[in-house]
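Table S4 entry, Probable ATP-binding protein YheS.
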Amino acid sequence: MINLQGVSLQVGGRDLLNDASCRIFPGHKVGIIGANGCGKSTLFKMLLKQQESDAGSVEVPTGWEIAHMAQEVSASDRSALDYALDGDHRLRALQQELEAAEADGSDGKRIGELHERMAAIDGYSGPARAAQLLDGLGFSHADQQRPVKSFSGGWRIRLNLARALMSPADLLLLDEPTNHLDLDATLWLEQWLQRFPGTLLIISHDRDFLDAVVDGIISFEQQDLVLYSGNYTAFERARAERLAQQQIQYEKQQAQRAHMEDFVRRFRAKATKAKQAQSRLKALDRMAEIAPAHVDSPFRFRLPASEKVSNPLVDLREAEIGYPGKTILPRVEMGIQPGRRIGLLGPNGAGKSSLIKTLAGELPLIGGERQCGEHLKIGYFAQHQLEALDPKASPILHVQRLSPGASEQELRDFLGGYGFIGDRVFEPVGGFSGGEKARVALALLAWQKPNLLLLDEPTNHLDLEMRHALTLALAEFPGAVILVSHDRHLLANTTDEFILVADGRAEPFDGDLDDYKQWLLAFKREEKRQSGNDTASADGKPVEDKKAQRRAAAALREQLKPLTNKLKSIEQKMAKAEKEVQRLEEKLADEDLYSGGRQDEITQLTKAQGEARESLDELEMEWLEVSEALEAARSAS
């Protein structure tokens, strides 16, 4: 297991961890969450032995292979396919050995042995597996042959993700893997990670993604690591219960809950019985339920709208959308009325961003008309909005350029809602993190009081607390909203209807996000059928062989079930024992206990503490024995 014991770490004069301890068992999938800058990426560096702790120990099982997703990739002439395939270092090393042996040609026995080793690691299917990964992440067959240097930064990050997934690993470390993915690639990645058999640690600010993938959450809280069982939703509930026990937080919770319940009631009064409206009501009820988990969020802001509106705000008639020499959407009819809230769905490259750019007036029409209302006021957040910020200007200067007459105090109060407190408002944004730059861009949108928000992936780089604040602000925004996002929680809670952009059309989608997931799977199957790949899997093996493999795997799981169930039972007991040890240690650490006259209580607590620790040690030994037995049974099979 991964064991962090008494870890303390200071970076740049700041305490990131102080006597933090945590255990992660093999095969578990754990989400790592916390505010930007709290130390999540630094934790990964410690696991990779790239960063030493100031105190304590960080133990990873000897012999484990670790794969991680790099955050940068240099320009290279290698093809995207070769770059992804490089992630399988065992395969590449074996290929080089085999190439050298065949070039020499003098040792036939050695060549035969190398071919056997290649077959043993399923090396011959390597290119097909790499192509499958790239296809799932949105790279077309033609893209896979392009050199790495020809891709933009966001697509290079996708290549790094493919390379990490290609790596044989006992432990997989992923840092914000969905940041540069669209919704269909995010859904594909979810399914891939659900099947990953090793241990997974994933830093992510996408709550629905975490809900689908992880079975535990490690939260950075006051320089400590707190482990919660269950997915992100379970974490929110558990944390809300903890906060509710503190009186001052409880009062804030009630105010937040009352605010959300009032909003739900107002929306319910207007809602129809349409499927989308009912789905949104359920989502809003859930927002009210989870609000207590965020009562201590540093972000509180609203998105005011212009009081003057036109109807329609924007009208596209017979619109031909695309670029010179390439039409993407040939005949689009779309009217955006005040208060409409639309989520754009569709596969990668279908034209969602092009449609938003056209509505914003950023992309000229090839044909047709775009008519704007007299009082139209657009707030446009593009995928590359952060690059438009002046790196030498501060947040307050960015807003002052829009309203030179605004007072400094007014601007300070406004920017405070976006997390810019004190002298931070005067610092150049060039030194800010991606999340901080995104908050500046959102603040500029809000300051202009638009009546139509056009948002293309606005949550990239935002942490969970800022995403929560944005969700609440958008839910209450009185203007019209058109949104493209891979964050399903944001889509579900801020839009009333969906438009599907696919096959050269933009048409209403009658369904919710679960229906869209099924549509997308069917769309992908049809694509494969049309390309003639429906009779074989991506690794070149017949579908029937795959079915036999799945049946064999299911039989093995059934055979090992008693051991796996026993292991889970021991882990649950260990978690309870750890909590008991922690409870007793907290009691023994209470200074009032030693004020006099409580010696019997001290003796009882000390004895109970020793017994609890002994019980935990016995459980750990039993866990190791069962783990070894399970591993032996798997090897024998």
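Residues 251 and 333 are 49 Å apart (CA to CA).
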